[in-house]
Amino acid sequence: MPIVNRVADLQPEIQAWRRDIHEHPELLYDVHRTAAFVADRLREFGCDEVATGLGKTGVVGVIKGKKPGGRGEIKVIGLRADMDALPIEETTNLPYASKTAGKMHACGHDGHTAMLLGAARYLAETRNFAGQAVVIFQPAEEGGAGAAAMLKDGLMDRFGIEQVYGMHNGPGIPIGSFAIRPGPIMASTASVDIKIEGHGGHAARPHKCIDSVMVGTQLIGALQQIVARNVDPLDSAVISICEFHAGNARNVIPQTAVLRGTVRTLTREVMALIEKRMHEVCAGIAQITGAKIDLAYEYGYPVTVNHAAQTELAAQVAREVAGDANVHDTQPMMGAEDFSYMLEARPGAFIFCGNGDSAGLHHPAYNFNDEAIVYGTSYWIKLVENTLAA
Question: Could you name the CATH architecture of 5-182+307-387?
Fold first, then answer.
């Protein structure tokens, strides 16, 4: 089964929606224009219910199939897209580039939203399934845990969702291809904030000081030994210290330094091990240098874990749309995704849809590839029709 013919007809309209959203990026929960755009379209399509304000600014549409009964036990599935942009200055110079300074859709959430809207339009027109399709438009994926906020507002129980599915575009994956795997597919996160208190003084008298810069450099090197020598080589982990703030004069040894970074793992056990070892390493460096070191270790998104049966179903649907040769197994990725919360609440799967040879995610030159629209939208449609077949 290739792409849905009706979707090919709808592609120009879906593309127009995508580009409109791209021009007007909004951050985190402040996606009021985008959410209103989505809700208006869902009402125009004739969805049986349109709910707003879940997880502050999330939108949900319910579409009931016209077929009686159903051959399977599953009666309601959820399909999720994210709506928020990133605090990045766009450099694409496209005609539809961001009109808001310092904000852009650098992760393709504009494309995700438009594709799910396209699927909602088709499903509301045809209703060629038994049960209910629930389309979920989520705010604040980019660090705000919007998925958790929607769950807290009763998303799954209120709409009776039994399985839930997500999709993300994938730069470097060819257009018309999909990538998926069972089990962990994206990493968990923790944020790390370290404050070093030394003893400042004149740069010419280091023996009278406790140099917070030197302590920081020792600490960064020692923290990398955790992955190299404490984590099982067959496990995956990343510790990246990405900020180092200290001093403001070339001849003054600074009193304090601040380090900030991130930790990524594919299991809870490795995350807990790294937290324990980071505290121990900080205490050890403090002892040998005489500095005071305070570590704040804050857990973020959990591991995104695809459920086996739902992953096989998703892969089969993708093969129907793209062909067997264009659906690939993928290695886990150390990026994070708050769809993980939804997969903790219900069985489901997260899949990548090819974005072609584009700039990478979160890059100022990134752009969602509109050629992917017909594949992603067709995937959503066939997922509903196959899962909720009569």
Answer: 3-Layer(aba) Sandwich (3.40)
Q: Give the 3-state secondary structure percentages of the chain, helix then strand then coil, rounded to 5.
A: 40, 30, 35
> Mind listing the pLDDT tens digit for each residue in 117-145?
999 999 999 999 999 999 999 999 999 99
Three-state DSSP class for residue 369: coil
Rounded Cα–Cα distance for residues 368 and 272 (Å): 36
pTM (predicted TM-score)? 0.94
Residues paired with residue 353 on neighbouring β-strands, in sequence order: 169, 178
Domain spanning 187-299: CATH 3.40.1110.10: no
From the list 194, 145, 191, the residue with the least C-alpha distance to 299 is 191
Distances (CA, A) of 187 to 176, 237, 252, 306: 25, 9, 41, 12
User: What residue segments make up the domains of the chain, in order of their start?
Assistant: 5-182+307-387, 187-299
Closest CA to 110 of 94, 126, 129: 94
